[in-house]
Amino acid sequence: MRFPRLVCLIAALLPPWAGAQAPSSHAIDIPGWFTESLLDFRDDVRDAAKDGKRLMVYFGQDGCPYCKALMQTNFSQKTIVDKTRRHFVAIALNLWGDRDVTWTDGRTMSEKELARALKVQFTPTLLFLDERGAVVVRLNGYYAPHRFEPVLDYVAGKMEKKLPLADHLAANAREAANPRLADEPFFLKPPYDLRRSRGAKPLAVLFETAHCAACDELHGEAFKRAEVKRLLAGFDVVRLSLADRAEVVTPSGAKTNGEAWGRALGIAYTPSVVFFDGPSEVLRVDAYLRPFHLASALDYVSSGAYRKEPSFQRFIQTRAERLRERGETVDLWK
Question: What's the CATH number for 192-325?
């Protein structure tokens, strides 16, 4: 969907030396300090490194409430903006855009083809690249300011070789929240043998931690929604703590525990939900998510739609349109 007036406004604000390609349209204003490059990321990585910075690549889309929260909430806070501008070169891409992009490996494709190649399933998705063009941190979805700022510190400080991001967030993104994990009647009880037999329900593995306000919100709001409850009935649901040492047999048959498995899966945000259908992971939700999108993720997996539609975002759009046609109100933020 195009927004001609907005495109004209952005074009009018661009400096005369900006790249020759017209920017993709964004329904949400991108901060003026984002770089409008020629989208050859090999050059962008080199130029950033010369200035002692790293690259931050943002994938967004029109009508995305989480993108709006990132731009209007996170990037309205002076400390976050100052850190981002000081340590990073920020470049915005449109999930469905048609501009030509040359990725760090030399492949040239459109923005939407790059998103597909990088398996971008959520917006916003942020990729933080090091001086060689390798992705050192990937945020699949929205991180609220109290968690986003420590991520900036982690990447700017080149801490990826020193400790996992999850450990850094655990030490630096504490918040006032329940010191105990909440329980739910639909959680499976130990021992946890998560191997899937033929005809078994798909599996949803929820990773949580204590002192997690977003986890409290998940239990207090999303899990109380009738639609979410109905869809959860189609899953085997296991909740694991990132500090859990109890034995777990994973869907692939490996013996481990919640702590080790969380690290192996690269879980850095809580709550995160990892979906399995059989032995393989098919989707994960590892950023702040409102009930509508959680219900959409449950529907996407339980219906088997992921087998025919590889783009979760397209599935969400189609689902929202179908609900509206039935006369239902769809608010992506509620």
Answer: 3.40.30.10
Say if strands 54-60 and 88-94 run parallel, antiparallel, or are unpaired.
Answer: parallel
- The reply to whether 192-325 shares the fold of 4-163 is yes
Q: Which stretches within 14-104 are classed as H helix? A: 41-50, 65-72, 78-87
Domain ranges of the chain: 4-163, 192-325
Q: Structure tokens of 185?
A: 């009647």
What region does 266 belong to: left with phi over 0, alpha with psi -120 to 50, or beta? Answer: left
pTM: 0.83
Backbone CA torsion sign across 133, 134, 136, 142: positive
Q: Please state, as a whole number, how many other Cβ atoms lie within 10 Å of the Cβ of residue 27.
A: 15
88: pLDDT strictly greater than 60 = yes
How many Cβ atoms from other residues are within 10 Å of residue 259's Cβ? 18
- The Cα 24–Cα 110 span in angstroms is 11
Stated length of the chain:
334
* Contact of 62 with 21, CB cutoff 8 Å: no
Alpha carbons 124 and 272: distance in angstroms, whole number: 16
Cα angle value 90/94/98 (rounded, 5°): 120
Do 47 and 89 contact (CB within 8 A), yes or no? yes
Q: Is the CATH number 3.40.710.10 carried by domain 4-163?
A: no
Arithmetic mean of pLDDT, 25-49: 87
Q: What is the pLDDT of residue 286?
A: 92
Residues 160-201: tens digit of each pLDDT: 999 999 999 999 988 889 999 999 999 999 999 999 998 899
The dihedrals phi and psi of 114, each to the nearest 5 degrees, come to -65, -45
Shortest CA distance to 54 belongs to which of 156, 125, 148? 156
What gap in Å lies between CA 216 and CA 203, rounded to an integer? 22
Residue 57, judged by CB atoms within 10 A of its CB (0-12, 13-18, 19+), counts as buried
* Sign of the torsion formed by the C-alpha atoms of 270, 194, 290 and 300: positive
